[in-house]
Design a protein that fits this description.
Layout: E1 4-7, H1 15-20, E2 35-38, H2 44-49, E3 58-61, H3 71-76, E4 80-82, H4 89-104, H5 107-115, E5 131-135, H6 139-150, E6 154-158, H7 165-171, E7 174-177, H8 191-196, E8 202-205, H9 214-222, E9 228-231, E10 251-253, H10 264-281
Parallel strand pairs: 1-2, 2-3, 3-4, 5-6, 5-7, 7-8, 8-9, 9-10
Helix pairs in contact: 4-6
Length: 295
């Protein structure tokens, strides 16, 4: 059995599944570890322990995002990195459709009127026939696209090497960010691109807050130059109480929990255990991260 070290809080619930599987692991001793398992929000610890992990060959993160990993050091030692991409796509796909329906069916207006006991009939919109530009069309993006197509929407996938991003933004009713955070995607939705959005368009971000120029987005939302935004991720998390986004009535906020189903961490741990078996048998690992492109 591979020597395994775990970077996680001791009370991380998914560790129970690891213990039940009979896998031996250590929290503190990385000296003899051939593999390191990194829990969500524990990636910053990896840089500190790497110099002591002299036998390390493989790092797996239970998160899908890998932007916090020390890729410079990992590349230098040619350490294989795998992640949990694709495991959260179905839940995020449901959230995105829910966010679209929030705007199309006027759910905020319904909630506000209910709280005021106001009977105020109004017209709602179809999702059918609307255009969704999905920026980043991997496991998460394709899960979104499948659901949008079932709703009768036109889906425009934008991949790293394919698709005209600016044209897709101009034509879209809903712009969904599902790309990983890399040097190429940081500030992808800058002020110029936000200005290219239709006044009726909604921006939905389920990726990372740093993909968006938050100040430019807030300005556009305040001035009603875009219809709205549904945000699961932010430049600073938790979102500070003084952030203007809290007070905007054309914004739907989620505390970075759109994929937090009750079984999310268990599913991620089961995937890791499958990969661990592959590693012990000398087989190819699934979800290998490109150390150069960092996703």
């Amino acid at each position: 059995m591979t020597g395994l070290a775990v970077l996680a809080p001791p009370d991380f619930p998914a560790l129970d599944l690891l213990r039940q599987s009979g896998v031996s692991f250590s929290f503190d001793d990385v000296n003899d570890a051939a593999a390191i398992l990194v829990a969500p929000r524990s990636a910053s610890q990896l840089r500190d322990v790497l110099p002591q992990a002299r036998n390390l060959r493989w790092v797996h993160t239970l998160a899908a995002g890998v932007e916090s990993l020390p890729f410079d050091a990992l590349r230098e030692r040619s350490i294989v990195v795998t992640n949990s991409r694709g495991l959260y796509g179905e839940a995020l796909g449901e959230f995105v459709i829910g966010a679209m329906l929030w705007f199309a069916k006027g759910f905020r207006r319904l909630v506000d009127n209910q709280s005021r006991r106001r009977w105020e009939p109004f017209d709602v919109e179809w999702l059918q026939g609307k255009t969704a530009a999905v920026i980043g069309y991997g496991g998460i993006g394709s899960a979104i696209g499948r659901r949008a197509e079932v709703m009768g929407m036109r889906v425009v996938p934008v991949r790293r090497r394919e698709g005209d991003l600016d044209e897709a933004i101009r034509a879209a009713d809903y712009i969904v960010l599902s790309a990983p955070l890399t040097a190429m995607t940081r500030n992808l939705m800058n002020a110029d691109r936000i200005a290219r959005m239709s006044a009726d368009a909604v921006l939905i971000n389920i990726s990372r807050g740093a993909l968006v120029d938050e100040a430019a987005m807030i300005e556009a939302l305040r001035a009603r130059r875009i219809r709205g935004a549904a945000l699961d991720v932010f430049a600073t998390e938790p979102l500070p109480p003084h952030n203007p986004l809290w007070a905007l009535d054309n914004v739907l906020l989620s505390p970075h929990s759109a994929d937090h189903t009750s079984d999310a961490h268990e599913r991620a741990m089961r995937f890791f255990l499958e990969n661990l078996g592959r590693f012990d048998r000398g087989e190819s690992l699934r979800n290998v991260v490109d150390l150069q492109f960092q996703y």
